[in-house]
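Annex B, item 7. Sequence and structure tokens for protein A, then protein B.
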Amino acid sequence: MTDASLDISRLTYADLPQVIAIERRAFPTPWSLAMFVLELSKPSGICLAARCDGVLVGYVICSRYEDVWHIMNVAIDPSRRRRGSATALLAQIVERVGSDARLTLEVRPSNDGAIRLYERFGFLPAGMRRRYYQDNGEDAVIMWRTPATVDGRLDDVPNPGPVRT
């Protein structure tokens, strides 16, 4: 089932109460309000909201670091998952940064659904961050989307390393 009336727009400070509520339902170690305020205050970042019938159902936070975009946070309200919201948000990010842009993110190796989603957008695993997640010490898979990874290669990924899942 997909949300036919999904709208993607800029995430604003006024959205933060709903964002915090989703964040707490979605993650064992949610971001703080201050973390969202910091990301929204960065002029070069891209922060988007997914709304269905006017209700905030998810968001993405993407920061720019020189020539790399870092997807910092993607969350969909647990009751609204598997309806295309995350796909729509990521499609908007890729469209806004450009198809040749370099994007990176970290994801739990246990989050198969998210990994499959990222792979559909051309992200490939390119390394690990040991004990990255504070709640349980789980490692993070570092994934990249670059012109090469879209073609299934890691040629233009900086310092690719081994990935164990």
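Protein B:
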Amino acid sequence: MSKTAKTNAMRILDKAGISYETKEYEYDESDLSGLTAADKMGADPNSIFKTLVLRGEKTGIMVCIIPVNQEINLKGLAAFAKDKRVEMIHLRELLPLTGYMRGGCSPIGMKKIYPTYIESSCLKYDVIGISGGKRGLQIILSPHDIIKITNTKIFENYI
């Protein structure tokens, strides 16, 4: 385990008895992309997942976890969530809604519990990386543990 200070996401995993590792990397404020994070960690970008926060017309705020090398299919997600349409929230809403800032938004430990969806390719891996709750920190854990701790639904991100 890293010497980094515990984040809210890490405390929640500890309390639940879920095993995980952390990986830290140098980040650059001008490039907070998940692809850059995967590259800096020497990780397969298919196994590093980013957290997106969206708003559905009916559903309201929802969270989507997809590989960093993919883009979200808004129509596909809307259909899966049984909503007419979904869109990304404005960046200025991220911190007030989740408690996390851009480049460090973890699906674990948000201010409120939102409907959460994870792309099905996560199940191809024994472990995947997600944001640890601050910039430059990834939590590496089983996708099954993420699904369990966040009550996540699995979806296909149809392109």
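Comment on protein B: Residues 123 and 144 are 8 Å apart (CA to CA).
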